[in-house]
Amino acid sequence: MLRKKALNRIYLTTLVLFIMLTTFSFDYLKEDNNSNLEEIEYVSNLNTTHIYLLNYDNYLVKVDILIDKGDILSEAREVINNLSVNNKKYNNLKGLIPSNTKLNNISYEKETLTVDFSKDLLKVNEKLEEKVIESIVYSLLELDSVSKVVIKIDGEVLDKLEKSNKTLPQMLDNSFGINKTYDIKSLKDIEKVVLYYVYNDSLNSYYVPVTKYLNSGENKVKIIIDSLKGNVFSNTNLSSYLTYKTDIKSYDLDKDILTITFNELNEDNLEEVTYSLAASIFDSMDVKKVVFESNGKIIDVKER
Questions:
Q1: Using an 8 Å Cβ cutoff, are 198 and 238 in contact?
Q2: How far is CA 209 from the centre of its chain?
Q3: What is the pTM of this model?
Q4: CA trace torsion 278, 279, 283, 284 (10° rounding)
Q5: Which of the four pLDDT bands, split at 50, 70 and 90, describes residue 29?
Q6: CA-to-CA distance for 247 and 250, rounded, in angstroms?
Q7: 3-state secondary structure string across the chain
Q8: What confidence tier does 211 reach under pLDDT thresholds 50, 70, 90?
Q9: In the chain, where are the structural domains located?
Q10: Looking at 72-76, 136-140, 235-239, which range is the least confident one?
Q11: Count of CB atoms within 10 A of residue 46's CB?
Q12: What is the reported pLDDT for 218?
């Protein structure tokens, strides 16, 4: 009898412990799920965009950032805040907007952002004066539904840089150029292309668009391919994924679709090669899709 009572007591104790553990586990999982849901909800309130910060070689580098989802004006303000010299988040990179600069006003109409800064914006040395404008324009153009930017200083449209006396268009877009380089020997057959190189520092790799002006009678596809395959910027950390070993057989432009055919391709960096080529083509030409082929098969497709 005692043995039976002991067994019953053990059974009841075990049953109570089981119920307590089950309830605790359920509550814990419920709390954990709620925590995860909150985290998911929080992440869903973020957008990915790009800004352009300066590296040690004075090139503006394309950087991924997360910003809060909102209307276009709040997103633009957040982008501008990330371009301040006070931004210390990124290794070996810096913003260019001077710390005392005030954003007086910002407005948006018909895909055009108008940003009005205090005169402190241009309190930089002459070499960085144009870089500040490039950084602001290209960063804001990364936002959805923004195709043009107007920059004002204390209410007046900025049409000339103070120190360099360079004139600026009142409406700024991608045609303004970024990280400009010039290889011009005459005023004839001047072509402009944008080339996407890679910048490597001790921790990360970033894409760097370089607007190149040169004399050439070739079409832009050939200029882009030859430029990316050539020797580049030996005194900097810029390089190209498209090396001289990359064997491109042919390319064909049909309306707004460009097809590039490789003889052989190293698949270890396929994504980097196709991205840098497509990005260069999209920023240089009126092309909506780039199709990459090899051995009779489509290996990748990039769309604007």
A1: yes
A2: 10
A3: 0.81
A4: -40
A5: very low
A6: 9
A7: CHHHHHHHHHHHHHHHHHHHHHHHHHHHHHHHHHHHHHHHHHHHCEEEEEEEEECCCCCEEEEEEEEECCCHHHHHHHHHHHCECCCCCCCCCECCECCCCCEEEEEEECCEEEEEECHHHHCCCHHHHHHHHHHHHHHHHCCCCCCEEEEEECCEECCECCCCCCECCCCECHHHCCCCEEECCCCCCEEEEEEEEEEECCCCEEEEEEEEEEECCCCHHHHHHHHHHCCCCCCCCEECCCCCCCEEEEEEEECCEEEEEEEECCHHHHHHHHHHHHHHHHHHCCCCEEEEEECCEEEEEEEC
A8: very high
A9: 1-44, 46-173, 181-303
A10: 235-239
A11: 12
A12: 87
In Å, how far are 87, 143, 184, 270, 297 from 51, measured between CA atoms?
12, 10, 29, 25, 35
Contact 68/45 with Cβ under 8 angstroms? yes
Residue 11 has pLDDT above 80, yes or no: no
Q: How many residues make up the chain in this entry? A: 304
pLDDT at 137 (0 to 100): 98
Phi, psi torsion values for 249, nearest 5 degrees = -80, -45
Q: What is the pLDDT of residue 44?
A: 62
- In sign, the C-alpha dihedral spanning 213, 217, 222, 226 is negative
**Measured between alpha carbons, how far is 51 from 84 in angstroms, rounded to an integer?**
11
Rg (CA), the chain: 27
The stretch 179-206 carries a mean pLDDT of 89
Share of the chain above pLDDT 90, in %: 61
Instruction: Indicate the residue type of 222.
Output: K
**What is the pLDDT, as a whole number, of residue 51?**
97
